[in-house]
Design brief:
A two-stranded antiparallel sheet has the order 1-2. It starts with 46 loop residues before the first helix and ends with a helix. 58% of the residues lie in helices and 3% in strands. It is mostly helical. The radius of gyration is 26 Å and the shape is elongated. Helix 1 (47-61) crosses helix 3 and helix 2 (73-80) packs across helix 3.
Amino acid sequence: MALPAEDLAGPLPSPTQPSPAQPSPAQTSPAQTTQALPSPVARRRRLPEELQQSLIGFIRDNGLQPGDRLPPEAELAEALGVGRSSIREAIRGLESLGALEIRHGKGVFVAAFTLAPLIEQIGRGIGAELRDFTEVLDVRCTLEVALIGRAMAAMGPADVAALREVVAAMERKARAGQNFAPEDQAFHATLFAPLGNRVVLNLLDVFWQVFTGTARVLQRPEADLVATWRDHKAILDAVAAGDVAAARKRLDAHYDGIRAVLLANHNQNKGKP
């Protein structure tokens, strides 16, 4: 995808030639007059990665913030000593990582930070290896057990009431023999929402996606829905009582059933070609 230079800010000063003494506002912006374009990269076998690193370095060295526009594609290509197609490929790669945002007809901009690309990559990267699931489960358990005390300290009556509503919905579905995966996910999100930490909530979402993916590769017995509901109710009771130690213990125990399934599958797969 070509990024029309006429739609971007005017050309930046060349790294080897001085800029005009009195640039017009139409040609450059105050922020751009102090920007130094990246130096040419050596032609290596992994050129796209090298170009991406050069562009990241340019953003960092010039203090560009989310929403700031990069120089035109043609200028970047000339400064780096590569073709415009190589620059486009590097930009598309950084866009997929969430570092850049391409606005058609306007240019390339520094993107606001988001964990969405990480979530997508982790979800895709976790394969059918049981070790992958075990390691993710351990990280999730460790994170929740470590943060539950802080989450409880930040909770108010409305937060506890919201948890009670979710657990009540779990009970109704469990006793009716209905799966309550959405309520399960909502319980953990509600439990840690008082932290106000978007990174934590996004990571919990990653872990949930990985967990739900186990259904495709694991041989799992029919879930004991009532027992799973009771696990969550036990966590809620500890939280409502303000007993951090009990909440940590019950959170840790909550994952014992999943660990048992992973271990059973591991033992069953031993000896298979």
